[in-house]
Write the structure tokens for this entry.
Amino acid sequence: MTRAAAPVRKHHSTVRAILRRLEAEYSDVTTALHYDSPFQLVVATVLSAQCTDARVNAVTPVLFRDYPDVESFLKLEQRTLERYIKTCGLFRSKARNLLAMSRMLVEEFDGQVPGTRSELMRLPGVGRKTANVVLANAFGADTIAVDTHVFRVSRRLGLAHGDTPAVVETELMDILPQSAWSSTHYRLILHGRQTCKAQRPLCDQCPLTRWCDYYQRL
Ligand code: SF4
């Protein structure tokens, strides 16, 4: 029986070239979600699960106008919150999680969004990806939140090969300089949305072909 060849790790000069090209393509990067506080960022990020950032940004202005902070969220009824967020998908479970999260923030964290991954991941509805987004944007931490775009694009490029977001996150943290973690996360998302699409990647329009494992196998 022949054993499958182990994936080849990209040379650091290739990684640097990919990062430079991504930076040239997508210079100014941050989360597309609109928010005015760490609490609003957590809420928006929870709402963004299986929903577009544009849809979340269409919903949150009215929600945050009427309920801007954790104290006001405590006054929300489940049904009322569902009406605000019903176009975001999974709105019942998201509403349930956001109300439970608000209670936990007040009861256990003095009403403040905690600044460590382990504490964030205790909050209902907050997984590792959401925690990483919050740590990067609210606390300036270096993180790589592996969403569907980061997972797909980094594997196609050959920056990572793992079968789960957690493994891909570890591989990316290993191969990328720490100072590039957060910005590369956003650039891979943008590249996945605009060019390296899930069903049919637009390789003929992609500036990364010469370094891309997927393209080299075509
Ligand atoms: S060459 Fe194709 S598969 Fe590779 S990153 Fe670009 S769009 Fe994606």
Summary: The domain at 12-29+144-217 is CATH 1.10.1670.10 (Endonuclease Iii, domain 2).
